[in-house]
Amino acid sequence: MELSVAVRALLTFLCTTTIAFTSSEETSIHRRSLPSTAEDTQMAHYFFYQRSEYPKDCRDVQSQCATSNSSGVYLIKPDGFEDPFEVYRNNNVGGGDWTVIQRRESGAVNFNRSWSQYQDGFGFLSTEFWLGNEKLSYLTNQADYELRVDIELSNGASFYTTYKGFRITDEWGQYKVTHIGPLESNAPTLLSTCPTNMIYETCTCQATCEDPKGQSGCNSDCLGSEGCTCPAGFLMQGSDCISASECGCFVAEANLVIPNGETYVNDYCTQKCTCNNNRLICEDYRCSTDAVCDVRNEIRQCYCDEGYEGDGETCESLYTDCQDVYDAGQRQEGIYTIMPTGWPGLPFDVHCKMENGGGWTVFQRRNDGSSSFDQNWAAYKDGFGDSRNLWLGNEKLHYLTNQRNYKLRFDITTSSGSAKYAEYTEFQVESESSKYRMNKLGTHSGNTGHELSYNKGKQFSTHDRDNDACDTSNCAEKHKSGWWHSNTWCSCYSYSYCYYFQYSSSCKAVCTGDNLNGVYNGGDGEMIFSYNYYYYHYSVFCSPQFVEMKIRPSS
Hints:
Number of helices: 9
Largest sheet: 9 strands, antiparallel
Oligomer: single chain
Number of strands: 41
Radius of gyration: 46 Å
Helix content: 10-25%
């Protein structure tokens, strides 16, 4: 049948088009020479009279493109196939004219595909591809074909295997291989088929569901050499490979199997999964507010912040007071988190002072009048204020002063700017059931003239909890402050010192020897003051500029 000029021009172009490639695994088919049997003669005669305008395989390329001896991409149209399609012709092996149906060389193309994708074909003829089962069916059923497999191993060795017959059915027959001829190969030993889901490559320690890291499943017969091994995502089970998803401790989110007895935590530390007897148990997981989600030593989990200890879900302060902070080598004054012994709540922040021997835990401070210290019982129990004016809290103070022996220090700057201090060798506050009684107060030293001895043994009072022993008045209400108020001078006197409160225009009284929580800078005659009574001599510091109270262990 004479071809038109236009068709001849097209074939000439197609026959001279080439694309170079490097192959490490290639599967090709080749039309065998005309057979001599009567059956084959009849088949050949049939195909002779069905000749198309396009080559029906890569052998026909040579007969219709006399000048083409190159490997490359060509258009072919097998007998009965509706439209022509491109194939790669390998003319460099086995006498040439091979129609390449599969190539893999780098893993760039995913071969884990669906039925329809394998039916239609996928990939790129220049690199990795599968030609397509439907095309392959038409190709192998139009004549006798042989199959050739060219393989190059990772060590550089290469070999080929040919099968002297190859044919598959159509889609109705599930593309089943109906004929495979005798095998010939130049390999040192004949290849054997790997078990289901296994591939031929360099063997490593084989992982199993029980040992997904492969720490004990080494195959000594194959290890380090080439042979059948499980591909990525598969684990050994007996002599075969199974998908990792079939293992009992498979975590779909991470696409991994957890070893028995180990734990997996997700990226955001919101879920923790544990493998117990090859059974996966997952539960909600949350980091403590004093912890961070992190990966350390290849383990992701919640890790407690510096200064805390625990499992990451619960973190407790390593420090029981500021002395612990000092002993840990911290010399910078500032805010630190502590957890006193027996403290029933969460760790809390305190201000640590590092001068005068260091390790001082501040529980009271007055810098100005911006914060009122005329607070109720609950406020004094829990604490209140800010960095400039604060009361740590009687409950915290109780746990602090009862975990070991403490001493007390006052630092005061007077209204004239003089720095004064006082220290007491002991200081302890009892529990709320004892109304936060000041139980211990040791000997005094310093230059303030303070004398807290009148306050020792007294219960704490606030304007809504009158625990002083004064029969005539509520000292906390009159002095506008929570304190260990004394009843020593709750009778009326005619004196008019700044620390007295006024019963009437002619009668003033005082309930305490010291009141560092009184009204800052005056107000109705009441001010922060210090008081010493010795031989009827008063040393008074009315309205100091700054006051700070702090404790540290005495031994």
